[in-house]
Amino acid sequence: MNQLENTLTSLEVAEMVGKDHSKVIRDIRNITSHLNEAKNGSVKIEDYFTEDIYQDNKGESRPCYRLSKKGCELFSTRMTGAKGTQFAVAYIERFNQMEQHIKQQPQVSNVQDDYAKRLRAKAMDQNARNRAAKALIDMANNATSDVNKALLQNKAVEIMTGEKLLEMPTLRQKFYSTEEIAAELGIFSESKKPHSTAVSQFIKTYLTLEDDEFEVFAESSGNWSGSVTKYAESVLEKVEQTIKEMGYPMFVPSKNGKNYHIYYRNIA
Q: Is 0.90 topped by the overall pTM?
């Protein structure tokens, strides 16, 4: 280690056990998954493992873990024989060195640690932004219209940089979400809310749409960013007409066998 700390990184563990770092990451993720499944309120995963990042030789941010002494003990249970013993001796000696270092320098400032934590947090936030932006760019590549492609690309740039690449283009016609269609036609759930799920299932089950009757739009709310399918006004009219022809059905069946019950308002 370049500097003694109270944790070991998964990179150091990989070196100590003679394993590829990606396999150590895989093993730790398997352990944390098992801990989550068996979690009973008394186990805190962060007492064993915490997610972190490091800079590789190219200066790019990569994922890693920090292991406490308890985390090392838990990780060592995955190894048997000489390798397990060697790792146990190695991490015990390392943590003893850490404890001695802390005892000898009780007044060491935490300024550098705080700065490093801020850098890690900033890098993790940027990585999350990059992943969200990439997802939107992939969606843009498969967009069904130039307008929607521009919307998705603009949103991706906004997520990455905080600035808009261009002004939002004006759409040729109004598009409605399934919630807006449900509210417009008076299709409600038992909880008295617009039944967007029933409308979505109704469209998939009973209607045949043209390519220009629906679009996939990029939307975001809080920390969520994703896509929402919206429908042209002609689809709203098709839903209304089909419901009338079917005599206002009280439920919409789904492919998985579930029935979505409908309550109508303002039926003439």
A: no
